[in-house]
Structure prediction request, 429 residues.
Amino acid sequence: MDLKIENTLPKKRFSSFKKNWNVKLYGDIYNFYSTNSLSRDKLNYESGKVFNIHYGDIHTKFSSLFDLTKELVPLINNDVDLSKYNEEKYCREGDLVVADASEDYEDIGKTIELININNKKVLAGLHTFLARPNKYKMAKGFATYLMQTWKVRKQVMVIAQGTKVLGIATGRLGKVKLSIPEYQEQKKITSFLNSVDDKLKQLTKKKELLNEYKKGVMQKIFSQELRFKDDNGNKYPDWEEKKLGEVLERTSTGLNPRRNFKLGFGNNYYITIKNIDNGKLNFDKAEKIDDDAMKMISKRSNLTKNDIIMSSIGNVGESYLLKEEPINWNINESVFMLRAKSIIKPYFLYFILNNADSKWYLKSNSTGSSFKSIKLKDLKLLPLRLPSLDEQQKISNFLSAIDKKIDLVNTQIENTKAFKKGLLQQMFV
Prediction:
């Protein structure tokens, strides 16, 4: 059944195609098949004859264009009885596997399309729908991008139900409207977007390799397997054994303005542990506080350029070096402020906190069951080796140059994602 809507043509289109797109219901294209409800303890990664797609893996690691040969997929334990699953309930290439449960709207209904199952037996598992395009010809991969468009995502969010955990039903999903072009146009769009995804994969791999290279180099530098020489080719002095507290001029934490002030008002940022991520600050998630709350917190932490702020709970040790003056923001009590003495370069101190030995120390000295934390007195006992200021500068320059390359690739990744998002808005109805 074709449905009538006002706009049946995309904004951006290949010139060789002229026909209007058809608007169909999800259920006019796909048949739904039952899936299993096997928990993780019924799965393994070592032996078995049947692979199983768990909804948790759809949310966290599987590519939307699912290729069994490129994914780490669990197998169903050999002692599980699968006799009730007839041939049509096993996955086929072109099928969609939809996650029917999620804790947030962003991932509810997240979909993967099976483009290669390598002639293996695969079942869709716990909290998934198996949708097969029996009723309409769909180009391989086209549905992957169609399901990522805002128009479809918005409809899926609307039909989601639940409080703590959101869920969708096949009856409601079957009524979602999908705009579909002719088969050849589907193929053309898919091929073009595949090339964008290939670019994203290449950039992501490049970033992973740079991060691995940096990790390996840092290990060699801080174990002194790799040493730098001065401009005349001479060795630098031996490194000195220190404790972190010996190289810090000042330490503090912020305060919690929730006790006396309402959050969400004013023009000052209120930074907590959730805003520090992989050496960056994410202001998108930062709350706002008014000037009175800002004055109260500033008296305690008094941040300035070249200070390091570090998570003291949760992901202990996640840190950020202030490369700018923090004019309109400050920290709460879950964040340490560390200010270096003149004997250590702030950038070098930042790298020390992020090397493997320091991360191991922070993890080992954190306490708590569900939510780990470290006390300031224990943090100050972190052992470190301190080279001369000149060698510190050379090390910092070397490592920061790698960071700049990583940042550049990350910018390219974000720009490519934005480009793809724009294409999804313009190439689909």
Notes: The first strand starts at residue 22 and ends at 25. The two ends are 18 Å apart (CA to CA).
